[in-house]
Amino acid sequence: MDKLLLQQQVLDRLAEDLLQAERAAQLAHETATHEENIAENKYDTLGLEAAYLATGQARRAQAIRAAMSHWRQFRPGAYDAGKGIQLGTLACLVDADDRQQQLFLGPPGGSMSVASGDQVVQVISSEAPLGAAMLGKCEGDEVSLQVGGARQQFEVLWAR
Predict the structure, then answer these.
(1) CA dihedral 9, 143, 84, 99 (to 10 degrees)
(2) Which residue among 13, 85, 114, 139 has the highest number of C-beta atoms inside a 10 angstrom radius?
């Protein structure tokens, strides 16, 4: 699997998300400022609610722009077995039920699933609990994390 292709897929998806957030912010802003939505009494809150929504969508768009900046600057390198799993590593984990999952450890803001050929790769950040638990692990190592009241355990099948 090509890590640069995975990176481009993440950037493409983030660009789509940004476009949607910007459109939603614009629509909410237009609703908030439309003359028909001027409050006539204290119970008439459509304009105010739309203004809150516009602010939230604008913040979401800004967060996506920040994520895109991180992903543009990101340079996934070759896997170094001496360091174990690091930012830019593509790894395969298996759980106790023999279910495998491929994970690509990237910068913040790119949490999503992408397709690479017939494989699905989950993109996660090193800030995510599973991503943090994977750091420094090598093939054959156990990755363990507490989720709610349950402990989840995985084995690293391979890393690249």
Answers:
(1) -50
(2) 85
Q: What is the pLDDT of residues 106-136, one digit of tens each?
A: 999 889 999 878 889 999 999 999 999 999 9
Give long-range contacts, CB 8 A cutoff, 24+ apart: 82-89. 83/136, 84/135, 84/136, 84/137, 84/138, 84/141, 84/159, 85/134, 85/135, 85/136, 85/137, 85/138, 85/156, 85/159, 86/135, 86/136, 87/126, 88/3, 89/134, 89/159, 89/160
Helix 3-33 × helix 46-73 angle, to 10°: 160
134 with 59: CB under 8 angstroms? no
Q: Which two three-digit tokens encode residue 80?
A: 């170094």
Task: With residue 93 as reference, give the H or E element that holds it.
Answer: strand 90-95
At 135-159, the pLDDT tens digits run 999 999 999 999 888 999 999 999 9
pTM above 0.70, yes or no: yes
Compute how many other C-beta atoms are within 10 angstroms of the C-beta atom of residue 60. 17
What whole-number distance in Å separates Cα of residue 39 and Cα of residue 97? Answer: 58
